[in-house]
Specification:
The complex is a heterodimer of chains A (276) and B (408).
Chain A (H helix, E strand, L loop, with lengths): L5 H28 L3 H5 L12 H11 L2 H32 L5 H11 L4 H14 L6 H5 L6 H11 L4 H9 L4 H12 L1 H16 L3 H6 L8 H9 L7 H31 L6
Helix pairs in contact in A: 1-14, 3-14, 4-8, 4-11, 5-8, 11-14, 13-14
Chain B lengths: L3 E10 L2 E11 L4 E5 L6 H9 L6 E6 L2 E2 L10 E4 L11 H13 L9 H4 L1 H20 L15 H13 L5 E5 L7 H18 L2 E6 L2 H7 L2 E6 L2 E6 L1 H6 L4 H6 L6 E8 L2 E4 L5 E4 L6 E7 L4 E4 L7 E10 L4 E7 L7 E6 L1 H4 L7 E6 L4 E4 L14 E2 L24
Parallel strand pairs in B: 3-8, 3-9, 6-7, 7-8
Antiparallel strand pairs in B: 1-2, 1-4, 4-5, 9-10, 11-12, 11-14, 12-13, 13-21, 14-20, 15-19, 16-17, 16-19, 17-18
Helix pairs in contact in B: 2-4, 2-5, 4-5
The chains are: A mainly alpha (276), B alpha+beta (408).
Chain lengths: 276, 408
């Protein structure tokens, strides 16, 4: 093996330091989730438990709150949101990137403008609307406000522009309708971008506290962050081990998903549709 | 197989007029090349024929029926794109199968599990599979069927693109500069192969290119397109020998045809700048003209016959089978320059910088009027001034001692 150069060593050291700093809270969270309460309060910097209380903490966490139910809620909401986002954003981005029609640039302008508006700004009218239709405090209310994502449209639009027009023309000559082009040509080609967007979307909606807090009241609709909130507001303020275990359970699916899709994710944000 | 007729076709993008009144007729089974510089509208014309672009006015007829407004898939044409446009996520076999799958199966039949349920679908899939194998064999890519386009070389991709075009036996092939991404050797062999394939299938083909060699070697007829118009349609020979206008004359032939400003007065064709006499004509059309002479029709001699034009060599190029001499006319007026094509042996008899005499072979003179159109002065009337002095020998530089007139 070749000896690493001084530059490589320095670079690795800096990256390791920054990564450790960023991961430190997470490491402590996992560490605390394995410790008994008195050890947490005893101080000490080591994240490793002296006395292993992991099983008790995790079982306790699962017993105290229906965490699995919250996880399932998170899956339902995130999957629903992502499904509709892709369903609407891909054809929309395709039309804007590859078809000629009047008002195309105006539409692109609106999309760009839409990127600037945070959910907090529109939440009140959406809340009123949902309350008026009687849909507040349902899964629908958790999903509907996010089904059209301007970010997705913009991301796919950028990606689709790298697909040569010849390819789509060839498909038209081969007998594909515009819908078949999207299904057979565009969708497979934008898979990396769709994966990247999927991760962005799932992470932000899994972790979203604001909107579920606004729109739901029933505890059985709790999404994972609301679940943690519910955990904390329980009377026992000292069960930090269980709290940390709960938090670890709730964040675990995301971490696992990212590790599995890591390569595609990086591909998706750094490449166009066609290599070379 | 179809007879294609294009009638008064016009197209503009915004204020830019791209096609201006194109009239073109392509016979059944013919290989027509559309030759023109980039930006002349040839690709747009191709896209209109394919139905990928709309036109403003005029008609495209195929086998007698009007194609205007028909979707590409309804026209039964196949295009080979310059970029090949292979679907990168599909294997070669899937690329080839797609046109057949889309055309010969219904939406329901295309569902993934249908092959196991319906025997009709199963049979269709087997048919498509064997069609794919036949098409692949025709262009000799049978062993590549499982690869993805990214794993193929340029030449192999090009073959896949050809196979995808011919697999569904279209009425018309449209080829948009399909060889421009290949290296020179491959280009020459693929040229022959495409022509042989087209003749074997008997399918009408339109081939767009900016490469005159491709057009001249492959096509039955060539349509020269300049600036959104068809300047001339004819065989390579016709266009080379009798270019209808000055743009066609300049575009075909390497090196370019020599073009001089000239004038006719009183039946004498002269160079405008020096007044030297080039030819006599009985047709009395006086006025400024342009005079074209192909390089191989320029004859350089070391002896001065009456009527020959003294020229000074400025630069020479040895190309193996031929040699080019760049010259300036009239010593004192170096702003008129031209090029002559010689036998390489003749180079040795000519000292660099030497002044020699130039004349031209009979019939080698092309005259164009001010608007660029060919002037048809009848051949008998147009008698080259210096041909009487020309020897029968092909090599113009003879072996007699050379009287040097002037040097640089």
């Amino acid at each position: 093996m070749k000896m690493p150069t001084r530059f490589q060593i320095t670079r690795l050291a800096i990256l390791t330091l920054v990564a450790t700093l960023l991961l430190l809270p997470y490491i402590y969270m996992v560490g605390f989730s394995l410790k008994p309460v008195d050890e947490i309060f005893a101080g000490g910097l080591s994240p490793l438990p002296r006395e292993f209380a992991g099983i008790a903490n995790y079982l306790g966490a699962l017993e105290r709150e229906p965490l699995l139910r919250y996880l399932a809620n998170g899956v339902i909401v995130c999957a629903g949101i992502l499904f509709f986002q892709l369903l609407f954003a891909v054809p929309c981005a395709y039309a804007m990137a590859k078809l000629r029609f009047p008002g195309r640039s105006l539409m692109l302008g609106i999309v760009l403008f839409g990127l600037l508006i945070p959910i907090q700004a529109t939440s009140l009218p959406i809340y009123v609307g949902l309350a008026w239709t009687g849909l507040a405090d349902t899964y629908t209310a958790l999903i509907v406000p996010f089904i059209s994502s301007v970010f997705a449209v913009f991301l796919f639009y950028q990606f689709l522009r790298t697909i040569p027009d010849d390819l789509l023309d060839a498909a038209r000559l081969d007998g594909c309708s515009e819908i078949s082009i999207i299904v057979r040509i565009v969708l497979p080609l934008i898979m990396p971008a769709a994966t990247a967007f999927g991760i962005f979307s799932v992470v932000s909606h899994w972790n979203d506290l604001f909107w579920p807090l606004v729109i739901t009241r029933s505890p059985e609709l709790n999404t994972p962050p609301l679940g943690i909130l519910a955990f904390r507001s329980e009377e026992a303020g000292d069960s930090y081990g269980e709290l940390m275990a709960g938090t670890a359970i709730i964040t675990a699916p995301l971490v696992i998903a990212f590790l599995l899709a890591q390569r595609r994710f990086i591909e998706g944000i750094s490449l166009g549709a066609l290599k070379g | 197989m179809a007879h294609i007729q294009i009638q008064d076709l016009n197209k503009s993008f915004g204020d830019t007029s791209v096609l201006r009144g194109i009239d073109l007729s392509i016979h059944e089974g013919e290989f027509l090349a559309i030759l023109g510089p980039s930006g002349c509208g040839k690709s747009t014309l191709l896209r209109i024929i394919a139905g990928l672009e709309t036109h403003d006015s005029g008609h495209v007829r195929m086998g007698g029926s009007i194609m205007d407004g028909l979707a590409p898939k309804a026209r039964d044409v196949a295009v080979v794109f310059q970029s090949y446009a292979l679907y990168p996520h599909m294997t070669v076999a899937q690329n080839l199968a797609l046109p057949l799958v889309m055309r010969e199966t219904t939406r329901v039949q295309r569902l993934p599990f249908m092959g196991h349920i319906s025997s009709v679908v199963k049979r269709k899939r087997v048919d498509i599979q064997s069609a794919v194998e036949r098409a692949a064999a025709q262009v000799r890519i049978a062993e590549l069927l499982d690869r993805k386009p990214a794993q193929l070389s340029g030449g192999q991709r090009q073959r896949v693109a050809l196979a995808r075009a011919l697999i569904r036996k279209p009425k018309l092939f449209l080829l948009d500069e399909p060889l421009s991404n290949l290296d020179a050797t491959l280009r020459a062999s693929t040229r022959t192969e495409i022509v042989q394939l087209q003749k074997r299938l008997g399918t009408t083909a339109i081939y767009v290119t900016h490469d005159q060699t491709e057009a001249m070697t492959m096509a039955d007829r060539i349509a020269i397109m300049i600036d959104g118009r068809v300047a001339q349609v004819g065989t390579a020979r016709e266009i080379y020998d009798r270019p209808k206008d000055v743009h066609a004359a300049l575009f075909v032939g390497t090196p370019k045809m020599n073009l001089f400003d000239g004038r006719i007065d009183g039946g004498v064709v002269r160079l405008a700048k020096t007044g030297m006499v080039l030819a006599h004509t009985a047709d009395a059309i006086d006025g400024p003209i342009r005079v074209g002479i192909r390089p191989e029709h320029v004859v350089l001699k070391t002896e001065f016959d009456e009527g020959a034009i003294p020229v000074v060599e400025t630069h020479r190029e040895f190309l193996g089978s031929e040699a080019l001499i760049h010259f300036g006319i009239g010593g004192g007026a170096p702003d008129i320059s031209g090029v002559a094509r010689l036998d390489p042996d003749a180079l040795d008899k000519l000292a660099p910088g030497q002044t020699v005499s130039a004349c031209f072979r009979p019939g080698g003179l092309h005259l164009f009027d001010q608007s660029g159109l060919r002037l048809e002065l009848s051949g008998e009337n147009l008698s080259p001034a210096a041909t009487t002095a020309l020897s029968d020998k092909e090599t113009a530089l003879d072996e007699r001692p050379i009287p040097i007139i002037a040097g640089i």
